[in-house]
Amino acid sequence: MWRLSGTVIAGGNTVSFTGTGTLTLAPSVAATFNNSAAASQTQTLSGTVTASGQSRTSAPRVSWTNMPAAPTRFLGEIGSSEYDVAQTPSTYPTMVVGGSAGTLGTISRYKDSTMSVSLGTTVVTYAVTAPVDPGSLLPILQCTY
Length: 145
Hints:
Structural class: mainly beta
Distance between the termini: 18 Å
Shape: globular
Strand content: over 45%
Helix content: under 10%
Mean pLDDT: 76
């Protein structure tokens, strides 16, 4: 179970949301992404979020294909209406401890794989927090786009 937080636009205003979700990972398969050898892994996120006092539960709706070149390098991802390319391959930390945080890299966002319509850039960061389950021995790694 992942803790979700961020902001959304509701009624023309930016409001904060919180919630929980489940991330499901399909087995990876060999692929090519942006002319580089990669492993394609489809990820699906479903959960419940609350914003402005209203809660919404979604069936698995947010789905994208992650393109790591190797288990510790991120090249980009493909969504239903977005094609994101890491400006340089992001390297995941090999070890984390509670309280650590950092920047993984910057993603250039495009409407599709032609990369002719830019949607801007996003900085991807991570933070390691205490586990949700007190009996868990591992900290929780949260990535923020």
